[in-house]
Amino acid sequence: MMDGFQMLGLKRSASMDEEVLQQAYAKLSREEHPDHGGSDATAAAVNQAFETLRVPELRLKHLLELAGPEEVKAWRTVPLDDGMMTIFGRLGAMLQKASAMAVKLEGARSALVKALLADGVLKLRDELEQLGMEIAGKKEEMEAQLADLDGRLETGEQEAWKELASLQARFAYLGRWRGQIRESLLLLTVD
Hints:
Elements: H1 4-7, H2 18-32, H3 40-54, H4 56-67, H5 70-73, H6 82-107, H7 111-154, H8 158-187
Helix pairs in contact: 2-3, 3-4, 4-8, 6-7, 6-8, 7-8
Organism: Phragmitibacter flavus
Protein name: J domain-containing protein
Pfam family, one: DnaJ
């Protein structure tokens, strides 16, 4: 398995300084670019390493695969705290509303019917965008936990590895939910 941290010359860690990552990527991608004597395969691997380390859920998954204890790699739990469960419940309700509204919009043929639906569409879009901002805030909150987690991981603390696995799963949920919100916003477009 390719070690993205090693490839980019970075220390294995849960947290990542975006600027340091960008600099390491830029330097290595220049050196390994096919136009400068590098191979296509190496350039692709550098790009893959950058994309993996740039996204928290992918970075944490990669770190677990590389360095996590075997029992933690297999450890799975429902990683939703109360805040995540609240978001999940609200998201489900909003996605149902968005789907129903999209069906109404699709069936609307006249300008009058579309105009009558427009207010409801705008309110629903606002609610979805607000929830998207809450999800982004939750993601930032979780990212803030990663630096503290790095120190605990270095000591080999078993609970830290479990927490890392839980954070990775929560980042994955948030990513999926943000994608669902984007899809719903696209469906709720009034001509």
